[in-house]
Amino acid sequence: MKTTLRPPAVPLITIDPYFSVWSMADRLTDDFTRHWTGKRQALTGLIHIDGVPWRFAGLVEPSAEQYYTEPEAMAQTGLEVTPLSTRYQFEAGGIALDVTFTSPLLPDDLELLSRPASYVSFQVRSLDGQAHRVKLYVDVTGEWCVNVSDQEVVWGQQEWDGRTVLQMSHAEQHVLNASGDDHRIDWGTFMLAANPSPNVQTSVHRAEVRKHFVRTGGIQQNEHAAPLNQPHKARDNGPVMAWVWDCGEVAGSAQSSEWFVLAYDDVYAIEYFGEKLEAYWKKDGKTTQAMLADAFNQYNELLDRSAAFDEQLRAEAVQAGGEKYADILAMSYRQAIASHKLVNDTEGQVLFMSKECFSNGCIATVDVSYPSIPLFLLVQPELIRGMMRPIFRYASSDAWPFEFAPHDVGQYPLANGQVYGENKLEAQMPVEECGNMLVMAAAVAKADGNLQLVKENDTLLSRWADYLIEHGLDPANQLCTDDFAGHLARNVNLSAKAVMGVASYSLLCELLGDSSKAAHYRKAAEEMANSWTEMAVEQGGEGSHTRLAFGQDGTWSLKYNLLWDQIFGTQLFDEALLRREVAWYLEKQERYGTPLDNRETYTKSDWLVWAASLAEKREDFLSLVEPLWDFMNETSDRVPFSDWYDTRSGRQIGFQHRSVVGGLFVKLLKDRGLGQ
To answer: Which of 4, 79, 396, 615 could bridge to 621 as Cys pair (CB 3.0-4.6 Å)?
Structure first.
């Protein structure tokens, strides 16, 4: 039986960090749709049923300063979020309306994964068997192609392959003009593309055309209406690209359907060490017209493939962790991908560049990539190499002054070198990033057996493994990925990452056929693990558990980094110790999950699931993970899946729309195994 999750925010159009629009309300009619940052990027949906207007998406009046009685909202009778689609169900006036948003981010086709085109589909049918006259209206605003709404936009219309393509752009085109976190794209072209049909109309009007449709069921403005001159500010009563479908008479059991495509051509996507790179889908010279033609021609095929992918993934998730775990993964999939941009470098190699959303906007952040990899190990390991290539390039350049691995390569979308912490040593994460890169390298190599990237960068990997042997067992005062908690010396969980980093390099040496080198690093990892256990375990009145920091009695933390010992089968840590850890996490659980450590009541959703996946018993995994479902279902913060929240109040602490939710797939990875 399927559970019914009330998502904190609902994914609608999810392609990349700039083209990602959500509904942040219980019902699609409660608010305008919004970019993941929370800024309005409106999609409005209206329907005329037997001459009576209703709303099914957004609002008619964009300005709260004006009085306007909104048409009544259709009753939202259903909402289903799958990995690739979101389906709303509405009823009013004897009509049932289904609205489905599909971003076919299928991982077996990188060109498709990069394609900046998303489907919006509609189905109408009679609920009472009677005949009803139905017209349907949708518009999208110029807010989708500007950073702030007082910027001006221009628009136009093309006829491509018999299809009408409405286009809108910021009036001033400065490609890759800025970087930052709370930032939206203001270059390139936003498009609404429609099927050729005598029953479909498309045109650009002022937003007040919605009111005209409410009154008349049409969008033909009278000749005395004020002209819409270009350029025009995007905000309030600015221009909208409108689509109207005259469904005709809907009667009996017949079902009518129609759909359109929303697309975005960003011209150039990433600046990579001074080179402007196009999105991956353009790698063979494909034009925007050809991209849209593919999207239309493959519509039926892609919806079938998407449905099959959704069904298979849910079945595996239910088997691994139950219905609620399957819901969590369905909410995670599109976000994990849409917080990246897929491009090719100038040598034709894949780069999969993350944005550290609602944190600091860094690009290709190593300790954001690391928690995200379980999903990509399952569905497309090459994307992990795409995460690692920028770090290898930067670390091997004269611009990187340290012997350990970098934290990132810039601020999205400008990957020209680290700006995080102004390159100061105290802002770096030496043990963290070395361990992350080594674990990622071993995991992706074992996932598909491709060792080329490892061979090309063995000098760096060896250097980082040696760094961990020297500095990783008892780390100095430094940051780790949980940098929001501040610097910490002798971090036990960070030390565990160092152990697994050294073990990972041993695995890589074994895969490369160097048994002597593999044995050396294996022995080093074993010695580190034995010392770790002696220093980490506290035998106290509350029971045996591991400390937050070596030498700090009465402390504890989630030891999520130990999970790789189970996934790799390296058996460096005693299973009895891991069982005691899981028992401790269950004992320390709050309403919405187990805190990250004893210092605060907040947790991280990715690390919570990693820690839960240490459990031998299914019931222990369920007990630790199902409170995360409760957080999503009950939190009052309506933002795309936040990975940092309070376990008592269910309130967001920070972060949203981050790629780290790919880490929630780790239980599937553990169950399936690497390379399966």
So the answer is: 615
Contact between 229 and 239 (Cβ < 8 Å): no
Q: Would you state the structure tokens that stand for residue 185, as one six-digit string? A: 């794209």
Cβ neighbourhood burial of 341 (10 Å; 0-12, 13-18, 19+): buried
- Which residues are within 8 A (CB) of 221 and not within 5 positions of it... i.e. 6 or more apart? 205, 209, 212
Question: Which amino acid, residue 171?
Answer: A
Both tokens assigned to 550: 């070596």
From the centroid of its chain, how far is CA 545? 34
User: Can you count the helices (H) and strands (E) in the chain?
Assistant: 16, 27
pLDDT of residue 1: 40
Count of CB atoms within 10 A of residue 235's CB? 19
Where do runs of H (alpha helix) occur along 35-94?
none
My answer on whether omega of the bond before 627 falls inside 30° of 0, hence cis, is no
pLDDT of residue 3: 61
Q: Distance between CA atoms of 446 and 567, rounded to whole angstroms?
A: 11
pLDDT the model gives residue 424: 85
Looking at residue 127, its pLDDT comes to 96
Q: Which position has the token pair 């990975």?
A: 643
Cβ atoms of 307 and 137 within 8 Å: the answer is: no
| Burial tier of 477 (Cβ tally within 10 Å: 0-12, 13-18, 19+) | exposed
Strands (E), 142-269: 152-160, 163-170, 189-194, 200-206, 232-233, 239-250, 255-265
pLDDT in tens, 421-447: 777 899 999 999 999 999 999 999 999
Spatial separation of the C-alpha atoms in residues 178 and 634, rounded to whole Å = 36
Which pLDDT score, from 0 to 100, does residue 236 have? 77
Best CA proximity match to 121, nearest among 309, 331, 303: 303
Q: Which two tokens stand for residue 3?
A: 């559970």
Residue (of 588, 596, 594) closest to 561 by Cα position: 596
Q: Which uninterrupted H or E stretch holds 91?
A: strand 85-92
Within 13 Å and on the Cβ side, how many CA atoms surround 582?
A: 25
- Stretches in the chain below the pLDDT threshold 50: 1
User: Model confidence over 216-270: pLDDT tens digits?
Assistant: 999 976 666 677 899 999 997 899 999 999 999 999 888 999 999 999 999 999 9
| Of 475, 493, 336, 464, residue with least CA distance to 402 | 464
- Give the SS3 label for residue 543: strand
Rounded CA separation 33/44 (Å): 8
State the angle between helix axes of 575-587 and 618-634 in degrees (0 to 180), rounded to the nearest 10.
40
The structure tokens 């010396």 sit at 489
